[in-house]
Amino acid sequence: MQSTNTLLKRIVRSSVHPFAAPHGMKKDLFPLSRTLSLSFCLKQDKLCNPSEKLDLDAWKEVMKSGLREEVSEMVPEHKEPSPLAGAREILEMWRLAGRSVPENITEEQLKAFTECPSKSAQKKYLKFLYLKELHKKNDKRKMEEKRERRLEIQEQGSKTDETKRNSFICFWTNCMDRAYGWRAAQSMIFGQPLVFDMSYEKDMSAREVTNAVRQLVLSESFNRRSVDPFHIHFCNLKNDSLYQKEFIKHYREAWGKLLVTATEQCYTEVFPKDKLVYLTADSPKVMKTFDHNKIYIVGSMVDRSIKTGVSLARAKRLGLETAALPLEKYLLWNTGAKNLTLDQMMHILLTLKDTGDWKKALEFVPKRKYCSFVGKPIHELKKNLNLINMLKLGKTREEVQKQFAKNYSKKLMQK
C-alpha cells in the first residue's frame, strides 16, 4: 500500500513540474502567501511578467469600500416626518374609521387644518371640506346625467328641430350677454356707485371669507342683470389677500375683464365724505327713503358669531354717516339677528332704486325671520291695539295696565 502511494506521488510531481516551470512555479506549487499571479493574455499570445502580483487583502478592502458606497447611495437617508405628513396620516386613519373626511385635500387646506386651534375646530373644518367635495361630486354627476339625456334625445330623433332650438338659444344668450355688458359699461360712467368694504378679512375665518366672496359673486350677477345697475366698487381689496384669491377661483380669466372697480384705496380717498352712508344693522339711525345722490357702503362680512358693532365702530372712526334698514318699522320680527346676506342687500337696494317701495324691497328678507309686513310703524299699531282694548273692556288705560300687571304676577307665582 505504501509503495503504491509513493508511486502515485512521483507520477504527479513528474506530470505537474513541466507545466509549472515556464510560469515561475517550480518549487512553490501552492504558495502560502495570498497572492494572485497574472496569467498571460490568450488573445495576444504573450506571457505576463511573473513579478506583476496583486494583493488579495488590499483588493478585498477596495471592493468592500465600493460596495458600502453603493449601498449608502441606494438606501435613502431617514428623514424626520413633517407635520403635514403626520396630518395626512391622521386624516387617512380618520377616513378608515368612517369619519367625514374629504378624499382629496390640498396643501393649503392641510395647512389650515393643522392651524386650527382645537380638535372640534379641526372636525368642523374637515366636515366643511367633506360637504364641499360632496356637493362638487353631485354637481358633476348631475352634469353627466344631463349630458347623457341630451345625447339620448339627439339619438332618438328630431335632430333638426333640436339643432335649430339650440342655435336660437345660443344666439339669444349671446345677445343678452352683450346687452348686460353694455348696461354694466354704461353704469361705470353714469351709474350710481355702490361700495363694498373689503377690510374685514382679519375678523373672519377662511370659511367665512369664501362664503362672503360667493355672496359677492351672486350680488355682481344680480346687479349686471338689473335694468339700472350700480357701479360696484371693491375698496380696500389688497393684492394676494384671501378675498382676491377667492375671486380669482370663481372668475378665473374673467376677473381682469370684469366691469367693476377693484382698488386698494379706501372709499374716503375715492369719494367725498359728505356723500358716503355706511349701511349697518347696529346704526341708531333708520333709513327712511333711498337717496340717489348718496353713495352707500356695505361691509363685505359674513359674521357667524354675530360680532355686533364692528362695522359701526369702523364708520365712526372714519367720521361717516350711518343708517340701518327699517326692518322693525315694516316687519313684525320673529327671532334672530337683523343681519342680512350681501346678495339680499343687493336685491333690496336694486328694488329701492328702481321702485322706492319698501314692501317690494323687503320681500327679499327671509320669511322665517318675520311674521308679516305692516304698512304702518309698529308703535302706532300698539297705540291702536290699546285703544281697541280700552273700547272693548270699557276701562281706562291705567286700569288696563294694572290688570295686565296682576295677570303677569299670577303667572310668575304659578311658575
UniProtKB/TrEMBL annotation:
It is found in: Mitochondrion. Its EC number is 2.1.1.218, 2.1.1.221. One of its GO terms (biological process) is methylation. GO terms for cellular component: mitochondrion; nucleoplasm. One of its GO terms (molecular function) is tRNA binding. Keywords: Coiled coil, Methyltransferase, Mitochondrion, S-adenosyl-L-methionine, Transferase, Transit peptide, tRNA processing. InterPro entries: MT_TRM10-typ, MT_TRM10-typ_sf, Trm10_C_MTase_dom, tRNA_m1G_MeTrfase_euk. Residues 180-372 form the SAM-dependent MTase TRM10-type domain. The keyword ATP-binding does not apply. It catalyses: guanosine(9) in tRNA + S-adenosyl-L-methionine = N(1)-methylguanosine(9) in tRNA + S-adenosyl-L-homocysteine + H(+); adenosine(9) in tRNA + S-adenosyl-L-methionine = N(1)-methyladenosine(9) in tRNA + S-adenosyl-L-homocysteine + H(+); an adenosine in mRNA + S-adenosyl-L-methionine = an N(1)-methyladenosine in mRNA + S-adenosyl-L-homocysteine + H(+). The keyword Protein biosynthesis does not apply. This is tRNA methyltransferase 10 homolog C. The lineage of its organism: Eukaryota, Metazoa, Chordata, Craniata, Vertebrata.
